[in-house]
UniProtKB/TrEMBL annotation:
This is Nitroreductase family protein. CDD domains: Nitro_FMN_reductase. It comes from Streptomyces griseoincarnatus. Coiled coil: none annotated. Gene3D superfamilies: NADH Oxidase. Residues 28-223 form the Nitroreductase domain. InterPro entries: Nitroreductase, Nitroreductase-like, Nitroreductase/BluB.
Length: 245
């Protein structure tokens, strides 16, 4: 029986701990998948979990593309390889700070395995979102500027693109996290990636996603080849700032 807390990366098997904590503390990114198909009803459960996630303004503008067809997956495999190769040659070339080289080498090996066996991926889930055109009247803009003040209003004008991207992401990623939790709870392996954005135009063309629709991740899903285990994360004491930084 563990005596620590799941927040520190321990596996929570104490009956006093909520089962959700055990799920979260063992929800590693699982990239080595068996080729066995995942039943549609399980994939629907994952999407249901995602839909239960919060959505900004309760607009619920999300859409999910679910790919299981082998022909489509084979068409996407070369795109995936190009994206992964681009990542490993740049951002992914070096281990993150605080991660030892051996551990990072194992992670890269799993990434390369997924790249080389991508055509055998049982399912892909691509979350999409698109904000509706804003409905803002002149009077609303006046009140907006008065509330923020001149300096903040001018600053918001400069970061509007970033603000919009974060606003859309905040409507999508809580649902994606629900999806990952549901996958773990069902014994399915999954991991979230955004490497497809290197070639988003090509991915959208291959999947028939409308030009104006934004894609936010590619989530491979399948039955794991390995075992779930404790995640390794920085302890809370290193990351929390109480009241002020």
């Amino acid at each position: 029986m563990t005596t620590g807390t799941p927040f520190a990366g321990a596996v929570a098997d104490d009956a006093a701990e909520p089962s959700l904590f055990a799920t979260m503390s063992t929800m590693r990114a699982m990239r080595r998948l068996r080729p066995d198909p995942v039943p549609d009803e399980l994939l629907d459960q994952l999407i249901q979990a995602a839909v239960w996630g919060p959505s900004g303004g309760n607009m619920q503008r999300y859409e999910y593309v679910v790919v299981t067809d082998r022909t489509v997956m084979a068409e996407l495999a070369p795109l995936w390889k190009r994206c992964v190769d681009a990542y490993l040659a740049t951002t992914g070339k070096y281990a993150p700070e605080g991660m030892d080289e051996a551990a990072y080498g194992r992670m890269v090996a799993a990434i390369e395995y997924q790249r080389d066996h991508f055509a055998d991926t049982p399912a892909l889930i691509i979350p999409c979102y698109q904000f509706p055109p804003p409905r803002i009247e002149e009077e609303g803009l006046r009140i907006y500027a008065e509330a923020l003040g001149a300096e903040a209003t001018e600053r918001m004008g400069r970061i509007q693109e970033r603000f919009s991207a974060l606003a859309e992401g905040s409507c999508v990623y809580p649902g994606v996290q629900n999806l990952l939790l549901a996958a773990r709870g069902l014994g399915l392996a999954a991991n979230i990636t955004i490497w497809h954005l290197f070639l988003e135009t090509e991915w959208k063309a291959a999947l028939g996603i409308p030009e104006g629709m934004n894609t936010f991740a590619v989530v491979p899903v399948g039955w794991p080849r390995g075992n779930f285990g404790p995640v390794r994360r920085r302890p809370v004491s290193e990351v929390v700032h109480r009241d002020r930084w």
